[in-house]
Specification:
The chain has 14 helices and 21 strands. It is of the alpha+beta class. The protein has three domains: 3-173, no CATH class; 180-274, Phosphorylase Kinase, domain 1 (2-Layer Sandwich); 277-473, Transferase(Phosphotransferase) domain 1 (Transferase(Phosphotransferase), domain 1, Orthogonal Bundle). The longest helix is centred in the middle third of the chain and has 20 residues, at 296-315.
């Protein structure tokens, strides 16, 4: 997938379609710059739809949404409905020359960058029949990738310009495309924590607030080039977590968030509570040598923290639906035997009530089949609190054995395959950090939490906490 630099917003559906298709199809070392303006030495501004920067050339691309058969000459084009318009090729060539001139003035090395012209037709039914020696500059979306990646289609022989991509981008952007992000709104960025397709997470400090200034910023991306209904669906999915958090309010075992704010043309930022030394339970499980130092009581009390957060959510008509070690943050507490535990990521939560809850985008693809309750795949809107109880039980099993009982709940035939013997051995072996007085009771709690038939599980999280509290003593 190519790198996209959004300088301005697409002015119409044709431009958005072109940018999206090229971004998805061009090689990852290509750059797209769209909707920018360049000014000549005399101060005359020219608007550019799109520029494609590849390994051997820079293309200035005029995007047109013309439909049907187009006939014409070097001077004018005629459409099926009888309409006539001047050929866009001469003006496009002029703008390409202006772009090439600005590159040379900026940096002498950019003399080696060949700037070519393309007129891109985005309508699937568009066809051309031109009596013009430059007709090869007119391409359709189906031809675009081959046109921009086949070096032989250029009118001249060019050298590899990949080393010059940064200075070219500086002319178009006003800055290097690799310049690190240092500020997001009123926050100064400390470091990038993680990055996925749909969001990037930063650690930052508020510029003016001095109390609890350190904040985690979740930057959500949506596709500004998508169709209006698709774009709206993406934005609603981004705000789903915030909808759930507003219903939850404050609780010591639920992460706190601020109000989402817009940043740039296609991003929203969610300020999130920073937990000192906090890390996902998933990370702690992967660092087995650390987990071995924690006894059974500490683990149970940590699990009870997650259970209390879930009970609070359930009382406020929220079913998390994505309880797993990655969505539970743990940190050392003032009392080493009582860790800090916070539930995070309510992106897939079921919000019950009068709001007409919609299923989040790509819901089933985002579920983790090793932790998801079996009924979730049949009727995700019909699940209740027992779905979260099941997922928490699987996490409890993994916390004690360092392994999940299976990889995919959809492949199970019969009861959840918990290794009772292994659990009993871990909980009763002399000298084990997990040794306890009543290992059979602990095993039965996990088994009851993880029943395939939800009618055989605990009825609610209060029942789970009552039994866990006995184990924690």
């Amino acid at each position: 997938m190519a790198h996209v630099h959004s300088i301005g917003e697409p002015e119409n559906k044709s431009e958005a379609k072109a940018i999206r298709r090229l971004a998805e199809s061009l090689p990852k070392d290509y750059y797209l710059f769209h909707n920018f303006e360049l000014t000549t030495g005399s101060g005359l501004p020219y608007e550019y739809d799109l520029a494609v920067l590849g390994d051997y050339a820079l293309w200035h691309v005029e995007v047109k949404g013309y439909r049907g058969m187009i006939k014409g000459t070097r001077h004018q084009w005629e459409f099926e409905n009888g309409g006539i318009t001047p050929s866009p090729i001469p003006l496009a060539n002029k703008k390409s020359k202006i772009l090439a001139s600005l590159l040379r003035k900026k940096d002498r090395r950019l003399n080696d960058v060949w700037v070519d012209t393309a007129v891109l037709l985005t309508d699937d039914r568009a066809k051309v029949r031109l009596h013009d020696e430059q007709a090869g500059r007119v391409i359709t979306l189906d031809q675009a990738v081959a046109h921009f990646t086949d070096r032989s289609k250029l009118p001249v022989q060019t050298d590899d310009i990949s080393r010059l991509q940064d200075p070219v981008a500086e002319v178009l952007l006003g800055q290097s495309p690799k310049r690190p992000i240092t500020q997001i709104g009123l926050y100064d960025v400390v470091e990038r924590i993680s990055q996925r397709t749909e969001r990037t997470v930063f650690l930052a400090n508020h510029r003016y607030i001095k109390t609890d200034a350190r904040t985690v910023l979740k930057v959500y991306h949506f596709d500004v080039y998508a169709k209006e209904d698709e774009r709206q669906s993406q934005i609603e999915a981004i705000f789903h977590d915030s909808d759930a958090m507003r219903m939850l309010g404050a609780h010591p075992n639920v992460i706190q968030t601020g109000d989402m704010f817009a940043w740039g043309t296609h991003q929203f930022v969610l300020p999130t509570e920073y937990i000192e030394q906090g890390r996902p339970l998933r990370t702690a499980l992967d660092m087995e040598q650390i987990e071995k130092k924690r006894d059974f009581g500490v683990k149970v009390r940590g699990l009870m923290g997650a259970a209390r957060g879930l009970r609070h959510a359930h009382k406020n008509n929220i079913i998390h639906r994505d309880v797993r070690p990655m969505n539970v943050v743990v940190a050392p507490g003032p009392d080493p035997t009582h860790p800090i535990v916070k539930l995070v990521n309510f992106d897939l939560a079921l919000i019950k009530g009068p709001f007409g809850d919609k299923r989040p985008r790509h819901f089933f693809e985002r579920l983790h089949p090793a932790y998801t309750a079996p009924e979730m795949y049949d009727d995700p809107e019909g699940v209740d609190v027992r779905a979260d109880i099941y997922s928490l039980g699987i996490a409890f099993y993994e916390l004690l054995t360092s392994e999940r009982p299976y990889d995919d709940v959809r492949e199970l035939d019969g009861e959840t395959p918990l290794d009772r013997e292994r659990l009993l051995h871990e909980l009763s072996a002399p000298g084990s950090m997990d040794e306890m007085d009543a290992p059979e009771e602990a095993v039965e709690i996990i088994v009851k939490m993880c029943r395939q038939d939800r009618e055989q599980r605990y009825a609610d999280m209060t029942e789970v906490l009552d039994d866990l509290s006995i184990l924690a003593e």
